[in-house]
Amino acid sequence: MTAYTLAHFRLTQTLFWRTPVSIGIALGFPILFGGLMPLMIPGGLRGGTPVEIAIITGVIVMGAGTLGFMTLVESFVMKRQLLILKRLRGTELPDLAIFGGEILTVMSIGLLQLAAIVGLARAVHGVALPANPALLVVTVLFTLAVFAAMAVAVSGRIPAQNATVVASLPFLLLTIGLSGFAYPISAFPGWLRTVSSFLPFGWAAEGISTAYLGRNYVGHVGSAVPPEVGILEGFRVMGPGWLVLAAWLVLSLLAAKRWFKWEPRRG
After folding, report:
1. Which end of the chain has less neighbouring CB within 10 Å, N or C?
2. Nearest CA to 95 among 74, 110, 80?
């Protein structure tokens, strides 16, 4: 299985770098936002978090959503409609190897996206480098894997390529609304925090904020500055978040395995 997954990973990597539109959406869009948004919003604190960090955190989550979900939904539906997926399935590749290769491609490109956003924030806006780089990388990779698995599950039910916006737009709005990009998570009303606790967006944002500032933003409420946490402590406080992300990853892969439609669809 591992060999098949890696073989498909190499194929999807090649296809991605030969598709300028995918490169622009996956890398250019979040980098542009990361460069411009901090210039348009006054500094200060937002829910106990420096505004520039809150914006960069939101940009990272939004970038993961754009790359992991929107780009992959478009790619999967296109490949299905052009019979590429059906031909791949006719080879020795298992279904999960096809899914896994696509998800690994998203994760590897996501690391480049993350490095570009962090580097831009540092060079252009003077944002300090993350206090816990390991937590940042693990959180982003886990988030990308979850979003990509969700994309695979959803894309199998989309009837045609021109209908991908029906799934992508609500996902993008959830990413923007629940990642702290538009409104601080710490100031969410109780009912919205409860809803968010079952979804991956807020957990990803809180893990990234904790990694950036070395303070415990997981479950943080109010405007007070959270206490400092060490590197290992940062991973520990994200415990409930890891469980939520893992649950979404497993459920999405099971849904994709069970309900994905390999035949081209019309309508």
Report:
1. C
2. 80
CB atoms near residue 148 (< 10 Å): 30
Burial of 35 (0-12, 13-18, 19+ CB in 10 A): middle
pTM higher than 0.85: yes
Do 167 and 154 contact (CB within 8 A), yes or no?
yes
Contact of 92 with 183, CB cutoff 8 Å: no
Residue keyed to tokens 């940062």:
234
Interatomic CA distance for residues 62 and 16, integer angstroms: 20
The Cα–Cα gap between 73 and 155 comes to 5
Closest CA to 38 of 115, 126, 111: 126
How far is it, in rounded angstroms, from Cα 186 to Cα 220? 5
**How confident is the model over 117-167, as pLDDT tens digits?**
898 888 887 888 999 999 999 999 999 999 999 998 888 788 776 777 777
